[in-house]
Structure formats: structure tokens, C-alpha cells
Amino acid sequence: MTSVSLVGPGEEPIVLDVPTAPVRVPTTRRYLMCAPEHFTVAYSINPWMDPTRPISTALAVEQWTALKETYEGLGHRVETIQPEPGLPDMVFAANSGTVVDGRVLGSRFRAPQRAAEADHFRRWFLANGYRDVVMPERTNEAEGDLAWTGRYLLAGTGFRTDPLAHAEAQEALGVPVISLQLVDPRYYHLDVALFVLADDLVAYYPEAFSPGSLRVLERLFPDAVVATEEDAACLGLNAVSDGRHVVLPVEAVHLAGEVAKRGFEPVFVDISELRKSGGGPKCCTMELRD
To answer: Is 284 annotated in the active site?
Structure first.
């Protein structure tokens, strides 16, 4: 047995005795992020958004900065894109591009309020040396609904991304695509229902998926971490893993304990203000897989 200490900001450590797990090795990642300088909740396009609730842009910036510094403290490189006035959800960079082996598939948003974000990110890619950039014809909310496992591209649909965009993704990125049907409107994107821990290992919330898609996940990932309702409800599955460290919301203590049992090291962040718009660590983080 191995003792694992889980510590959230301002909390007493929780010590778990867990079975000896595989040694997990992190890999250095490169991320693209956008500061929430214009963050607010001025409209509602998902069940988390309530324009009548008070919002602190300053607190959102503080939480985003802490997330960025967490990545940098783990040795990762963070690029940034200039936030644009009038685009309060541009902070959720994951929704604006999917990059695999240097190939870029841009985004096409379902909600008109976010549509302009796609071209800002397209221009960032071109200005930063990417030449293989494809913009989708079908609605495609990028890493919000597309998760690269190292072997497959898991592709969510049901609320945002058009299922026909999955075929576009396969053509643009040249990787096999597995379609998954989402059924709970609270978990409207794949990245709030599932995240990749390491090559061929994921964590997911079963009730977010249709029965057939759940059987697919069970077949592909028989050793997956299965999350609870409490894990999902704090957006615990909107997490980011580098193969060893798992950055996740501070409330996701149960999920942290489960990933610790698999040899991963949970790293807590506070995303309470950003969560008012339905986003968490992963939503703020596009991975640049060059």
C-alpha cells in the first residue's frame, strides 16, 4: 500500500492508503490559453449560465492566472491569444481548435454569440507558423467535443458538435474517430463528461452517455476511472492530465482519490467563477500537439 495526500487550497490534507499503482511519467505539454479579461455571463447557452447571477471578472482573471501558473509550475509551456471585447467566452480556448501532429482543425460554433471566436483562433494559428489549418463546414466545437487518446479521437455529439463533423475531423486530422452520444444537457460537451488520463486510459461519467456509447467506452477502456454524480456536478471531469499530474477542480476530492489510486498526482485549482459559464480547467486549455 502507498499513502497519498490530497490537499486543496486552504484545506487540511486528506491521506488515503491506496494500492501500489503503476509509475506514471509526465510529458511536457504546450497549451494555448486566453485570459478572461472580458469574461461575464451576458447570455445563456448552457444549463450552467445564469445572466442574473453576479459575476466578478477580476476573480475570473485571478483563477485563470492561477491555472496558467499551475501549468507553468509543472514545466509546461503556455501560449496566449489576445482576448477580444464582446467575446466573453473566448477564455474557453479548448472550443476553438483541435491540433494533432501539427494539423489543425478549427471550430464552427453552434451559438451565434460565440461564432466570431473561430476566426480569431484561425488567424492565431496562421500567424504562429501553422499551415495545415482546416476550418470545418459542420458545427464543430473542437476539443470541447474532441478528445485525443493517443490512438483514437473520441468525438462527442448530441448538443453542440454535428455528428457529420466527426467525418470531417477524420479527414482533416487523419486519425480514427469514435463517435459518442451525449444525453444529459448539463454535460453538453464531451470534455465535461470525459477526460484522457494517459494513452488508452480515460475517466468518464456513465450517465452522460447513451447506452450504446457507454458500451463502446466499456469495450475500449475496461480499466477506466468511473466518475460519480458528485464528480461530474463540480465539473471534475473537465480536467487536464500530462500523464502524471491531473489538474482538476478543488471540489473533485472523490475523483482525485480515484485517479491517485491509479498512480496519478492530483493538482487542485479553484475555477468557481469560470464554472458559472459552464467551464473548468480543460475548457480554458487547448493542447497544441505539434
So the answer is: no
